[in-house]
Structures
1.
Amino acid sequence: MAYSFVSHLYCPKCQNTYSADEKANVCACGSPLLVSYDYAGIKAQLTKETLVKRKPDLWRYHELLPVKNKENVTSFGEGMTPLIEMKNLSEEYGIKTVWMKDEGLIHTGSFKARGSAVGVSKAKELNIKEIAMPTNGNAGAAWALYAVKAGIKSHIVMPLDAPLITRKEVYISGANLYLVDGVISDAGKIVARSVKENGWFDVSTLKEPYRIEGKKTMGLEIAEQLDWELPDVIVYPTGGGVGLIGIYKAIKELMELGWVKKDKFPRLVAVQAEGCAPIVKAFNEGKRESEFWQDSKTSAFGINVPKALGDFLVLEAIYETSGCAIAVDDDTILSEQQLIAQKEGAFICPEGAATFAAIRKLRESGWIKSHESVIGLNTGMGIKYPETVEADAPLVGKEEAIY
Amino acid sequence: MAYSFVSHLYCPKCQNTYSADEKANVCACGSPLLVSYDYAGIKAQLTKETLVKRKPDLWRYHELLPVKNKENVTSFGEGMTPLIEMKNLSEEYGIKTVWMKDEGLIHTGSFKARGSAVGVSKAKELNIKEIAMPTNGNAGAAWALYAVKAGIKSHIVMPLDAPLITRKEVYISGANLYLVDGVISDAGKIVARSVKENGWFDVSTLKEPYRIEGKKTMGLEIAEQLDWELPDVIVYPTGGGVGLIGIYKAIKELMELGWVKKDKFPRLVAVQAEGCAPIVKAFNEGKRESEFWQDSKTSAFGINVPKALGDFLVLEAIYETSGCAIAVDDDTILSEQQLIAQKEGAFICPEGAATFAAIRKLRESGWIKSHESVIGLNTGMGIKYPETVEADAPLVGKEEAIY
């Protein structure tokens, strides 16, 4: 019984292949690398009936993950996050079924934990001792804390404006933390320079192949949680876009395994903020790559990514599934965040709120039909962004009552 | 197939019984009420084999929960939180096995979600329209947000010094939020007065019988996650003590069902802060009830409870299981919090850190033996307490590198 059926890495641009047993960053051509598996081998070993008895974390899909030796799995029980039916939002939006996949219920309170769980575990397997990365906050927190458990030293560079709590998460982990007065691209350049000089392993978004594998488990879980009947639409807040690429890859792999129907791909939607919408611009212009977005700005900090290395993979996922890309403005994001708390009792992050604001807009425009089923990804807990919420409240005397 | 096998409520002090189909607060004698079930009925319907196929949330134990009609279940997928082996802490403490039950991975990031999930669902079943409660923060946030989903209006009174993020959670839910310049007992008095004047339902700790039922699922999960082999010791940070009472009740019920061995009860440990340790004082004096703790103060805000209504139940659980009660000081709590982040990659709350500091002390004193297995409850995410952590980091220029 193999723990993993990983076979090799391949380049989606030039089709070059690489070993999954050696350290790899990007292809010689500069493209991110993707992971391939022995799908026939998986088919022969893994059944849906086996799966149901496994622990409710993302390692239940270990045959479809790149870690070969179970001993290298570095886990805080991440995965199998709830898929919650949002009946009040369904009514509000006029859509038959609206689910929220709640990625707040995971180590560090952000979906970034999935990428770091698999990425750090594989780094441990490849005997990597020091990693470095730029981050908008949540990814840095997740990688720094997972790295501790794996015995790996990490170096994190973060914009000054990133959510303060993520800075504290990195700090308490004991990682080397640096700040830059700029955006994530500036942090990325510092990291690129530093890994060369120090011989650290660069784990920037899509500069290592395994983060996608962690993120793809969102797609695997969605399929399993819906008893292998996929929804009509999946909506995802898009910065680096790894989650969308991962969900697309997951569904293709499930089709390859024959676990979901081949004829019906959910339409994938990339949501961005109006202050940083390079993927949306490229989509609207029918292009297959995006351009650097100047002076990007949004309160949904996690999706402030002016140019994603995997932009062409995000756009491919959108085009191939008849999906779309859509931008929402910051005021709309914050009012949707409040509405969801007051209608559904869920305090979600601004990026997640952007997702639901987009679902509302897409229903209004008719792109989503009233009879359809839609999943919105909430990528993290609202409590990581306290500055988006006020807290006015009257003071009561100890001898008083309230009415 | 009954969804619930709830039979009635009973008073653990005077043995009076009450219906579980009508609103109930405390017994006429003033004691909290406990929930009883038809255990023979459960035995006949529910098997461990059935359980394994159910969704990974606390409602998998619905036969052992008080909600009769599934339609009233108000859920965000809470429960089946990870039980994580802490190998580095085992080594650090010199204890064979140390697990952390991580209650941060739940709606609102705090174990309070369990009590509110079941309490709010049952309130909905009983047709309750408005609830009121005092809170140290996390419980208020959880009850306010669950109440939204159930269509119940809530009134929350919170000390001024409670964690700011919990104030924001209550605020964004649209609940009526009030602050008091005092401790939770002061908030409790305001609520007691207000429920009388307004006809609201009082859901203060142990003033309604169903919160314990939610909390007891921690005990059910621990047993299931360890394949029905209980650990030697379970350590729990104790404010109101509902979790400890719940875990004790859970294990007794599992013994009644014959799902765990009757001869070996885990020793239950109540951990308090030195600045607020009424249960510890009572335990040290061999008493069965605690006294009000004057001028209580601790950075582990959730366990700042000067006098718990269920103190006698907490002490009973300790005495009956040959457990103990122990206090740790605030400096030790904060240094243990940091150590756990840097040894295990887990950023836990101060209350959770108190738990692990207590495990260390109990091993040092020999009360826990080196060959034993110990579970520590981390009751919430560290990110809810940003003020406990610094975030110093150097600024790097955009054209620089780091070393």
Note: Residues 1 and 45 of chain B are 7 Å apart (CA to CA).
2.
Amino acid sequence: MTVSREVELEGHIIDSGMMQSCFGIIMDLGGSFSVQEFDIGRHKDEESYARMLVEADDEDQLQSIVHELHQHGVNPSDPKDATLVPAPDDQVVPHGFYSTTNHPTYIRHDGEWVEVEDMEMDCAVVVEDSDSPRAYTKVLNAIEEGDLVVTDETGIKVQPPERPRDSSGAFGFMQGGVSSERPSESTIRKIANAIEETKKEGGKVMAVCGPALIHSGAREDLARLVREGYVDMLSAGNGFAVHDIERDIYGTSLGMDTESLDHPRHGHKHHIYTISEVIREGGIEEAVESGTIESGVMYECIDNDRPFVLAGSIRDDGPLPDTITDAVEAQNAIREQAHEADMVLMLSTLLHSVAVGNCLPSTTRVVCVDINPATVTQLLDRGSAQAVGMVTDIGTFVPILAEQLLSED
Amino acid sequence: MTVSREVELEGHIIDSGMMQSCFGIIMDLGGSFSVQEFDIGRHKDEESYARMLVEADDEDQLQSIVHELHQHGVNPSDPKDATLVPAPDDQVVPHGFYSTTNHPTYIRHDGEWVEVEDMEMDCAVVVEDSDSPRAYTKVLNAIEEGDLVVTDETGIKVQPPERPRDSSGAFGFMQGGVSSERPSESTIRKIANAIEETKKEGGKVMAVCGPALIHSGAREDLARLVREGYVDMLSAGNGFAVHDIERDIYGTSLGMDTESLDHPRHGHKHHIYTISEVIREGGIEEAVESGTIESGVMYECIDNDRPFVLAGSIRDDGPLPDTITDAVEAQNAIREQAHEADMVLMLSTLLHSVAVGNCLPSTTRVVCVDINPATVTQLLDRGSAQAVGMVTDIGTFVPILAEQLLSED
Amino acid sequence: MTVSREVELEGHIIDSGMMQSCFGIIMDLGGSFSVQEFDIGRHKDEESYARMLVEADDEDQLQSIVHELHQHGVNPSDPKDATLVPAPDDQVVPHGFYSTTNHPTYIRHDGEWVEVEDMEMDCAVVVEDSDSPRAYTKVLNAIEEGDLVVTDETGIKVQPPERPRDSSGAFGFMQGGVSSERPSESTIRKIANAIEETKKEGGKVMAVCGPALIHSGAREDLARLVREGYVDMLSAGNGFAVHDIERDIYGTSLGMDTESLDHPRHGHKHHIYTISEVIREGGIEEAVESGTIESGVMYECIDNDRPFVLAGSIRDDGPLPDTITDAVEAQNAIREQAHEADMVLMLSTLLHSVAVGNCLPSTTRVVCVDINPATVTQLLDRGSAQAVGMVTDIGTFVPILAEQLLSED
Amino acid sequence: MTVSREVELEGHIIDSGMMQSCFGIIMDLGGSFSVQEFDIGRHKDEESYARMLVEADDEDQLQSIVHELHQHGVNPSDPKDATLVPAPDDQVVPHGFYSTTNHPTYIRHDGEWVEVEDMEMDCAVVVEDSDSPRAYTKVLNAIEEGDLVVTDETGIKVQPPERPRDSSGAFGFMQGGVSSERPSESTIRKIANAIEETKKEGGKVMAVCGPALIHSGAREDLARLVREGYVDMLSAGNGFAVHDIERDIYGTSLGMDTESLDHPRHGHKHHIYTISEVIREGGIEEAVESGTIESGVMYECIDNDRPFVLAGSIRDDGPLPDTITDAVEAQNAIREQAHEADMVLMLSTLLHSVAVGNCLPSTTRVVCVDINPATVTQLLDRGSAQAVGMVTDIGTFVPILAEQLLSED
């Protein structure tokens, strides 16, 4: 005896690979299927439709197949309302809670599909039951006793974004995966265009920055991009800010003069002295106001009111007074920025890029730049619909990008 | 008109490279020198002695030369007491405070040399003035108003450890730098010997672990090493513990069955479910006691009373109740462990290894294992006297190490 | 006015992704299509069938679409004979010659489909016209005046191998791509099974070896695998053989004792002395016979009649008398081995693995092991249907593999 | 009973590390020493002098110590003539032949020191005995029967170049080792200066180029550098030339349009078509003359008479008629270029850079650029006195370098 459920697929289901994934999932999980209706888009613009009966040996197996299917956008043809169970305690989710993907998601409540707000992956979905019900994600540690948490698999619809077919637009190149075998200058030109297009659409650009950006001499050009409004907000670590400010106060980065390449012998102390100076002032903003800090990325953020998050880590010296040392608090600050961003530039940092990437829906544009191909691969592996990775030297990338953006004004 | 100061060098000053460094520093910084007395060790066991007059154009230049020299173990022949200045406020050091190296260091106080306790780099030195004066390091954020902080360059003696000449002992191979071109099994055998020797001396072994250790299937063997007492304490991140416990509860790591290599299609949810289960229980110890967790690295730590530190980071899911999310608190916990360790195994984690490395004096033995040569190079670059790096697969390293250690019992 | 052609797809055309690729190609190249017949496999075992009309703006565009389609296994529904043009000169192909993929390929000649022999990519196809016509690949430099070379796109059928659905067999894991996040010992166990299965089927295993295999201490275990018949033939460079023989004669590799890790100070001369000794003897076989070489990989090859190819390169010292210094001759020797191999182990060499990979049809099993993830990715990127990459240390991989294979006998 | 020999050290023997190496060697090899005379340079400009008695347990040990010492520039105080033994056969050196370092070397013959010509490492030294005797290196495969080959250790003087103390000149930065943490644009500016300085001195600049240079879009700028005379000669592989010419004929590299980043679907055939076209013409020069090739690096080499060597390898398609497929012949051609070069730019190729590096004396300036830090490390590890490595993207490096060099004219 087998159990079965009917599911539907709609859209460019062949072209997008959805149908292939669907067949694969069913077979991988040991189920079987029969196609009951199949209406193929006869031209390239037409959508297709398929209705299938999924069969499994028992209810458990069927559930796990249907669970996988719906994560790939295949939904039951007879949707029911989502199951809501109150959280038994703060930070404790009900058993069998639904853990999110990063794709646009809808919850069926009182027979209506409600879009889930603030989509990001590995969260619970909480529904506010009212006349106009809302659904939104919550990370586990934010769950409060009594929150109505979506559990099980029913009443949930996931819509993985289709990768745009047309590669001719400003963002068309952003599906190219990672390659160190692409022409560097042309790729940077494309990225510059995508940033301009995003700004023209009124979008916000977020830069996620690692300290290598400073060591490699790209600080001044990033500062210009912040000043000129091509970077709307910034996420980095304590070290990034310290290196940026060290360059301002002492002219060095990691103790090396970034112009002359000289390495003043006592330069390795500049790092810790810089921290000490900023602590003495009370913070970066205070140090800018007092004139202690007169240039650089952090300076331009303060001077032009670009919000920044400095997240602490266990390898920090200091930390600076501005650094959020609690990881959960820092995540919340990053999350807020990430949800506002329309395009994210991940510049030479794995830790902070992963943290930001964790909070992004799959619809946000992502550019990821690092000299380590493994880092770029790992960051692009998160299923964004428009993402491009570039294996290059951040110390030449930022200057060329800035030249592209600033000389075209 | 020039200024000058007399300095002394003692020990195996040619063999250790000290004399060469010293000449280099003086010339690099634009000074000059004349050798006033030079008594070379005529045989390989004899120590040498040199007395030199260092000359510079002005007092600033002289100070900076003497500063560099003393960081390499060259000390003024006419030592004065260290200068102590009270900290003006909490977390605020006096101007010109002395920032430490990770080498054994002595402070001259009331004409006596006092050894600085808890040596680690980039700290201030605080002196407790009393009948039996003490000196110890303090990180910047731990400074309290009124602390007597060592400033300037006088009255400080640094003793970089000499690398042992004799390479025949158990630790003799631990000066080999990084290489992926060394025979793997022989190197692991040497590391096993060094661990045994450390245990025989009554020393403590600390393991610093990244999640790759679990993914790569080395979990069971590390657990055995913890159980059998070859690992006395453990430092890791939230992710390591979650992956370890996921393997226990669901048989997967990152959703992959580590035995069959099957990838149960809903396995990617195991990670977040694991966190949820441990939160529900209240913590790892509670989950062990209740029987929810029955095996693995964390289980053995609990079961055998091996202390562990789980430090949070902004890329964590969860986090687990045991994870210290505040970076400063986590550093303090790591610091305490690091100061107790006689040998540190850095296993496939850059972030946590740097954090631990920051707290280690240069006399602690360090073994660093990673598949990325850049990580190993970066970690070995901290000036430990006995350190070895190995570019290998942690998933084969730990099993072979465990076999060496456990079959020899 | 548009031009059009009818094409057919057969098999697991959705499950295998063929249909998706096909739609993508047409749209990427600016064409359009209408599906004229679509018969979907209603159960997982049934094959599907589709007939489509491909439309384009002009004949050029249509040709290029049809060209791409047929490289993905989509064939015209009205096949014509292939066009044959005689080569105008030695090493000179006719304009518009057909350049091969590495997939099984058929040429239509006199109304019959003839399978192309010795498939490999980037070759011309030469047809021998006779009562029983043959078709085979020729590399450009082997073309002789008058060879009948297939040109244009008609009359050619390509069949990309389907990736096996069922992952439960001995080779089921060999579609896993590259990952450094898989359990190492379990993966090696799977590879051992696949080797055994290949041998049971009467297949031949070819090892492609880089010098790192020797430096990392895996020499003895590879030698055992050669002796015991798990490696049937070997492809390597001059350096590999020299390092292997140096270990035999001097006990060192790159001048380091692979047991004690000691580095005899004059050890760096062993390399060049080894070459000199073998030249003096006249070759490896002579040196084995005279007793100069008494153990190791090359010794076992000679002693057990396992054919080997040593290909020269511009970085060689020496070279040994056995080394084929001409690249074209060496390629021919490698090609002959590659065409005989049923399974290829690529062990820590990019250069030789690429050379071998260039000669392999897409149906040969490939295992690629390297500590550099970029190397593994590059090697797996060649479209073999059964290939697996492992990022690990060759110095632990070979010993564990040998233990698996040799202890199970 | 011990044996002993007296040796002398002269020059900046402490500052250069020579004395330290010398003590280390003796102790590592189990010998002992007593310093008999030591005259230290009392100021930074004065040279030092030391005379030591080296003692060992037997003549073998003593020889091996003295052998090592003299490779580091320590020479016996009582030099004898070098021992010359005729080669017994073609390609066969006498037993115990002296294998060279890459440092300037002198052979004592008839009581006179004769400088060895064409220094490179791992060669034999052949002496032409006549009124004005000459000594020069020969690789093993070039040895002819009867050649007088230097054997044993006596009568040989090696002078490792001292690294220049003064870092202020045009080449002062070229001792910086490898770092990805240096400011990129400033470093490129320094390299540009060093190239200009080399040209001003009448020196020759050799470029060693990998295909990544073309894929990454740097082709046009390298072509300009060739045209304008900043590159005097070029060493590359078959693939580099093919990719360069593909870009000219088809506008693609690896099938990708390097301007638009479009990937024409049939573009992957361009590579093999390009080879076919050049074979048809008879060679690159013929294809330039006929107008088939109209631009690019190879075009500029032909057009401006810059000699080039294209060395074949087993992974080549084709090869082109210009490619030297025999590794030994190719080495000889590379060797000739390398001996003429005053500065070598190694641009994104490990294989060809190692081949060139093998032929360079330690006095040639070397700049090594690659995106893979392991490649840069390996290439810099050859003991050149003036070498700098840069971990960067060749696709941005060459354009910025060209801008520096060409805009300053």
Note: Chain D has three domains: 1-77, 79-161, 177-407.
3.
Amino acid sequence: MQASFEFPPIGVIHSCFKQKFGIPRQPGLVAEARATLELLPPYDCAEALTELAGFSHLWIIFVFHRSLRDGWRPTVRPPRLGGNRRIGVFASRSPFRPNPIGLSAVRLLGIVEEDGKRLLQLAGVDLLDGTPVLDIKPYLPYGDAIADARAGYAQAAPRAPLAVTFEARAEAQITAAEADHPGLRRLIEQLLAADPRPAYQAGTASRRRFGMRLWDYDVQWEMVDGGVRVTGLIPLPVDEGA
Amino acid sequence: MQASFEFPPIGVIHSCFKQKFGIPRQPGLVAEARATLELLPPYDCAEALTELAGFSHLWIIFVFHRSLRDGWRPTVRPPRLGGNRRIGVFASRSPFRPNPIGLSAVRLLGIVEEDGKRLLQLAGVDLLDGTPVLDIKPYLPYGDAIADARAGYAQAAPRAPLAVTFEARAEAQITAAEADHPGLRRLIEQLLAADPRPAYQAGTASRRRFGMRLWDYDVQWEMVDGGVRVTGLIPLPVDEGA
């Protein structure tokens, strides 16, 4: 057998998620999380997408590009288990895998051509901005949807346990930003309800103020009485932290 | 972005399918199709599989190793459409893709250690013998099972339309072979019922006798009155055609 296999990216993801912190822990959990998949030449021909629009969902096979240099360990500690229990890496969807390849089922909203680029519009993503895409496959429910699959420690979806409220200042800032980013308020609400804090911080009072980058904004919030209070949406210099 | 990404195999598939002809067209269609995934060092440590046994199904991400040198074209002609209609390669699960990466949901029957090798026992596979495996992920029904997904031309499972009968000679040969390969008769029945003939041959009388390699046997059959009649199971010299 070959010692290794080499694959060029066929596309790249453009998404609101500029950093790992805050990203949904699986696809489909945050319906409002949208992204664009830009096909790269020579894979961007219209023929390669013939009849793709008939599919509501796609598989995206991608590279965890921010985990490439981190290496892997045989076990990981999934956030859903509170960060205490060690699980085999092959029993997890962690990015820190022997081959940092990701797999996400996402919703296909549309296919457009803009400025000579062929773009797939996606929703329900958990994909970082800049993610290299290796393959796109149609989701085939007759083979891929196994509703009665037994899934050990991960049977149910992680809960989105937190109530989210917005301070007046944050409301105003978000309303203004919605002009460029429709659905932003609902996106922030869905992301924060899922409690993006690292497992070791959830349930402690050790740190109460947080920020996460979304598009070119810093979303700022506090933990208050077990819920999330969004305090502001601060524009960031473009490309900062990218 | 990097021009390409390099991934070593973490495992290799051992299966009854020694050639492409006759292989199920998707995973899950032939429950009896079994395989073993052998983990390769240094990925074969027990820790990496901790709690994997709690999952009934896995994703196998693999290389279509017999399609590596074939290149890709923007469109393919899926067998289910009779080989007449052209579909975009990204709207298909064809092995002839820009990156020949495969994705199969398979059933996990068990995890064993044999002769110092760590093996996953799989069922419902559509994997060629010798397939290099890039990743193993747990199947998570809450995110992966999208029962109401719309799937264009591929909404329903391909039919398994053919009746399969066995000549007395074939019955006797299969019964003898079942000692080494329990379930062989049912496997042959399920495979042939699905009509493995290329789309351009199905429905024609141009060729009536067929053979496919399964383990180290040549399964021989004829098309008779629109059904399949299995005529023999001939042992092949070991490794021939491998």
Note: The first strand of chain A starts at residue 5 and ends at 7.
4.
Amino acid sequence: MNFADSLTARTKEKSPVCVGFDPDLAKLPEGITKDADGVLEFGKGIIDAVAGTAAVFKPQLAFFEVLRWEGIKVFWDLCTYAKEKGLLVIADGKRGDIGSTCEAYAEAYLYEGSPIDALTVNPYLGIDGVRPFIERAVKYDKGLFVLVKTSNPSSGDLQDLPIGDEVVHEYLAQMVEGWGTQCLGPVSNFSSIGAVVGATYPEEMTYLRTLMPHIPFLIPGYGAQGGTAADSARGFIPDGTGAVVSATRSIIYASYGADWREAAGKATLEMAEELKRALNL
Amino acid sequence: MNFADSLTARTKEKSPVCVGFDPDLAKLPEGITKDADGVLEFGKGIIDAVAGTAAVFKPQLAFFEVLRWEGIKVFWDLCTYAKEKGLLVIADGKRGDIGSTCEAYAEAYLYEGSPIDALTVNPYLGIDGVRPFIERAVKYDKGLFVLVKTSNPSSGDLQDLPIGDEVVHEYLAQMVEGWGTQCLGPVSNFSSIGAVVGATYPEEMTYLRTLMPHIPFLIPGYGAQGGTAADSARGFIPDGTGAVVSATRSIIYASYGADWREAAGKATLEMAEELKRALNL
């Protein structure tokens, strides 16, 4: 099934919650060893706790790379585990390079039968660095999320530079919409090409939704970074689809005590309910 | 020793050649198995062949990630091997993310005693995504190379957008120069913060050298991508320092036959001589 259709179906069935997973060894809860085995145990526990409520599991590659090859092994094991538990998996790597290198990244993550459904992609190198991901996405019913307006405080350094009457990220948004209309899901009418748009910039999000009517949004910045349910709601279309909202620290580190599983499950459920209220669902 | 001073000393002692390493399994030469073990053997052979001439070895992470955990193990083994053979090592990962994630990337690659001397960094998220690398670079005598104007055909999609009288990559160049003057090498007067500037855009390079007088350039695009020695020379300062020029396919795939080691060594030597002629050294 087309990725955008899968994403839309899953968010309707469960909720638009995407659980980010940034396993910092220094923050692992009570009873978990501070190593790759600990990350595997922690990750499986989080997946079990959230799979009934969340649509998406989003592991952040940096936190696995820091554990070298053992971390990468755990990364793939967790992607497979999350997939088995009915979650869609977005690998958060923000990859981007020249064409021949992006072919390798695309092959690494978006192949037939991969447990990974989509990858985040950095557009600074232009369409060359995005095209290999689009080709793979179309071929294997996978997706990608292009960074458009990120959630961090300095995202405006380049993304908000004024070009004529618009700013860089608005110009990029129109390019992404153009790429995206090549691969629309027949059911959802959303594209396999998504955009990352931070909850921490709600006004920008409202405008970006109009510039990218066919683009699903991956919305980071909810929770620890300060974005709210009302802010995030601006990225959806009126029927409550078209976006997933990602929270990481507020869910996976909801407790550092022995009750971390329950706390993560509870935080996910509360977030889902807050979003549904904000979306009038 | 400060990274920029090491880089300058090494290029004076040997040459400004940086050998890129993109081990595509489909292209491995005769007699090499098409797996992670083959990549290790191929990489060691290339390192042995080029270590006498080149200053830098630049493995491209994408081609290791595609081999999963076994590839990552080989990546680190090759970085260590290159370091032992007297090469500086630049990990080409083009990483970039929000601050807390970049802390993890910085910890993964730029720690005390790491065989990796520098990492390529994508600036699309602004200074938040660069600062953790700068802090590590200063603390551990490491370096980073920020993508400014990349070598690929579509690099202008975002990098050349006009903002007032300049374009995005020129504006970024001035930010990089500003960050860079915080960490100048006492001997070279170059910064630990470098910039990626493609040989395929020679006019832009000439101007970028004036905008970033303290920034060492990592110049890709030589050889297979079409950049020449004369084009690349524009990124250097008059004494023939301030840049390294990277070639990948024209060196590591100089022959697919049993003579690939000799061919890689010869291609490196020829490139070094071409660069020295173009730089009047």
Note: The radius of gyration of chain A is 18 Å.
